[in-house]
Amino acid sequence: MATTFEAGFRLDGKVALVTGAAAGIGYAISELFAAQGARLVLLDLSEEVQNVAQKLPGDHLAIPCNVAENAQIQAAVDKAVEKYGKIDILVNNAGVALLNKATEVTEKEWDTTMAVNLRAPFFLAQAVARVMAKNGGGQIVNMASQASVIALDRHVAYCASKAAIVSMTEVLAIEWARAGITVNAISPTVVETALGKKAWAGEVGEAMKQKIPVGRFAQPEEIASAALYLVSEHTRIMTGANVVIDGGYTIQ
Predict the structure, then answer these.
(1) Gap between the Cα atoms of 117 and 135, Å rounded
(2) How far apart are CA 162 and CA 181, in angstroms?
(3) E-strand stretches of 53-180
(4) For position 2, what pLDDT does the model report?
(5) In 3-state terms, what secondary structure has residue 118?
(6) Does the structure show a pLDDT above 80 at 1?
(7) Which residues, 6 or more positions from 65, have their beta carbon under 8 angstroms from its beta carbon?
(8) Domain range 4-243, its CATH number among 3.40.30.10, 3.30.450.20, 3.40.630.40, 3.40.50.720
(9) Which DSSP state fits 246?
(10) I need a labelling partner for 76 at 20 to 30 A (CA). Which of 63, 89, 116, 230 fits?
(11) Residues 223, 245: contact at Cβ < 8 Å?
(12) Catalytic residue among 84, 158, 229, 249
């Protein structure tokens, strides 16, 4: 029999919308939330998101979606509400990392980074918060990065977008608290997703690990566990926080 503590992490009856759900951190979050009883609305640019919805236990809705397009965002939210009647949880996880020297960043690289990493999370949060407010509240988790609090070479657009996510999180937390909506951010270090392993393979990865006090990168499941904590019954008082998961990198 589950203890009260364990029951606080159950998501039975909850509807959770997760972006970037087809792979990596988004998939790990979706997998964990489904295991805890949530019904999922899975958004991803990749059609693979349909297969994810079928693999996970439970009744889930998969929507191929370009979150950089506001019309597609609103259409996805409308579909979710039409199917489930509500949205209790939003995880803004989808993101891009287009790295370049500050003197070489193109207008397209800058605009794409801001569209996916910043504009999309805001307008998704806005659309979902309107639904949540009518139903007594909910929880929003925005995926930021250690790049939100430190500078990284060749990351000017990425760092700017993630720092803005944290600031946005804080403002939304204040504005929506009385509506029963909590808004928090997670800032991971390098995460060993399939893309992360490829990007940080070999000497560059080993050099980066040497800068992290615990000597390793994060695992997708560790980030998913933090997301579950932030949407659980145990964190109703917690809002406006930026949970840094970086093995001590940013405290040096």
Answers:
(1) 27
(2) 21
(3) 61-64, 89-92, 138-143
(4) 76
(5) helix
(6) no
(7) 19, 43, 44, 45, 72, 73, 75, 76
(8) 3.40.50.720
(9) S
(10) 230
(11) yes
(12) 158
**Maximal C-alpha separation, the chain:** 59
DSSP class of 57: S
Residue count of the chain:
252
Domain boundaries, the chain: 4-243
The answer to whether residues 240 and 42 touch, using CB atoms and an 8 Å cutoff, is no
What residues contact 233, with CB distance under 8 A and at least 6 apart? 7, 8, 9
Is 229 catalytic? The answer is no
Q: Beta strand 61-64 with 89-92: parallel, antiparallel or unpaired?
A: unpaired
**pLDDT category of residue 99 using cuts at 50, 70 and 90:** very high
Residue type, 64: P
DSSP 44: E
Distance CA 48, CA 159 (A): 28
Judged by average pLDDT, the poorest of 5-14, 98-107, 191-200, 216-225 is 191-200
Q: Tell me the pLDDT of the chain averaged across its residues.
A: 97
Q: What is the distance between the alpha carbons of residues 101 and 149, in angstroms, rounded to a whole number? A: 19
Percent residues over pLDDT 90 in the chain? 96
Radius of gyration of the chain (CA): 17
